Amino acid sequence: MMAKVPCAPIQHMGRMIDNPSTAVCGMVAEKVHPSGVRIKRPGVIIKINGEVAIVPENAYAPNPGEHDKEILGGILGLSDEGLRAYEEKETI
Q: pLDDT category, 66, cuts 50, 70, 90?
């Protein structure tokens, strides 16, 4: 006996974004990254009262190193001198 479980193939990012059915369902969002590059990414698939939830304009992946000082200094407590030492060694 076969189980009656709804399922579909798992697709990698490129195929998901290029799939016409995902665009129709509102699962693809097109945004402008702060660098000026227009990108397509997975959108919000949550719908409330039939309306697709809104993706904030500033929701983007950070650039490499964008939060280094905030994390190393603010959260982990590295001093300004310690941060400068890492910057001089091009570690961050």
A: confident
Query: How does DSSP assign 73-84, residue by residue?
Result: IIIT---HHHHH
List the Cα angle 59/24/31 in 5-degree steps: 25
Across the chain, mean pLDDT equals 80
Please, which residues have CB within 8 angstroms of residue 28's CB and are 6 or more apart in sequence?
16, 17, 22, 40, 41, 42, 43
Report the length, in residues, of the chain.
92
The number of beta carbons lying within 10 Å of the beta carbon of residue 15 is 11
- Taking the complete model, does pTM exceed 0.85, yes or no? no
pLDDT confidence of 34, banded at 50, 70, 90?
Answer: confident
Q: What is the distance between the alpha carbons of residues 21 and 28, in angstroms, rounded to a whole number?
A: 10
Report in angstroms the alpha-carbon separations of 21 from 16, 24, 62, 88. Answer: 9, 5, 28, 49
